[in-house]
Amino acid sequence: MALFGFGISTAGHLEIAGCDAADLAREFGTPLHVLDEDRLRANCRAYTGIMAQSYGTGRVLFASKACCIVATCQIAHQEGLGVDVASGGEIYTARRAGVPASEMYFHGNNKTPHEIEDALRIGVGRFIVDNDYELDLLEALTGRLGVQAHIQLRLTPGIEPHTHQAIRTGGVDSKFGFGILDGAAYRAVERARKMPGVHLRGLHAHIGSQIFDLEPFRQSAAALLDFAARIRDEFDVTVEELNLGGGLAIRYLRTDETPSIRDYIGSLTQTVNAKLGEHRLSPPTLFVEPGRSIVGDAGVTLYTVGAVKVIPGVRTYVSVDGGM
Q1: Can the peptide bond before residue 31 be classed as cis, meaning omega within 30 degrees of 0?
Q2: What is the pLDDT of residues 232-249, one digit of tens each?
Q3: pTM reported for the whole predicted model
């Protein structure tokens, strides 16, 4: 018997990778996060394998915010993924996992001067630059340290995916990124290409999370490549890297129907290849940043039931040791 990818033993207990959940709870206590390493690795390999088949020159980055612990970062690195980090703490965790700084891609819309300086000193691979404040900090710190920052500019393409409002990040009113529609992205490119301490490597967009429909992903890819053609024509800037972020939905409910990794990557690469041909652009390295679609179906949290309140004819409340 299967339960959302896990098994049920003959004793009626949940099993994760063949381990009895009740035994794990007794041995380690609760609340307890349990991850299936084989499933994690299989998900990583699905992304890297399909990317290689569909596009070739692509990179998969693990969005560590989905489950940022040493083990997940270590497994992602062992499977050939880079690691998307969004704070000094996530950089620390990735380093503890043995991830080289050059394989870290530093996100965040409010990186502190201290975080940026530390990242420059250790040689973080890419800064995904979110705003003018960050460009100001990079300009000052690269000059003082005598180093160069390799960056991808995060753009807001004006795409509204069909997902919860709290996790939409590609619309005009998003707090993230330089807007394409209002000209902020154009001005950011114009500035970044002149900064001596900055090497503009590419463009980035992440339009949201838990997205079931592939069309917004296609629209975002098309918008970025239309913009890439514009800055090539106006500034002679070559976009070497195209980072399309993450956001692929996973199944939370039995009724959820989610696109497969193959359909997701295939949809992106089809759009990218069509736009490259339309604009006569050189193929960039293509990046995606999956998070929950790598760890979501590989893990479960175990709790112990405590108080139970029965309200006759209304409902029953069951309290666990993982919240109120």
Answers
A1: yes
A2: 999 999 999 999 999 999
A3: 0.90
Burial class of residue 226, CB neighbours in 10 A (0-12, 13-18, 19+): middle
Q: Are 213 and 258 in contact (CB under 8 A)?
A: no
- End-to-end CA separation in angstroms for the chain: 31
User: And the tokens for 128?
Assistant: 């995904």
Using DSSP bridges, classify how beta strands 19-20 and 14-16 pair: parallel, antiparallel or unpaired.
antiparallel
Asked if 115 contacts 134 with a C-beta cutoff of 8 angstroms, the reply is no
pLDDT at 186 over 90: yes
Domain extent listing, the chain: 36-302
Fold of 36-302: TIM Barrel (3.20.20)
CA 167 from centre of chain: 13
- The answer to whether the beta carbons of residues 155 and 133 sit under 8 Å apart is no
Q: Residues of the chain with pLDDT > 90: what percent?
A: 85
Contacts 24+ apart (CB under 8 A), 254-261: 256/212, 257/212, 258/212, 259/212, 259/214, 261/43, 261/46, 261/47, 261/50, 261/290, 261/293
Task: Output the six-digit token pair for 180.
Answer: 């394409």
Cα(215)–Cα(221) distance, rounded to whole angstroms? Answer: 10
- CA 140 to the chain's CA centroid: 28
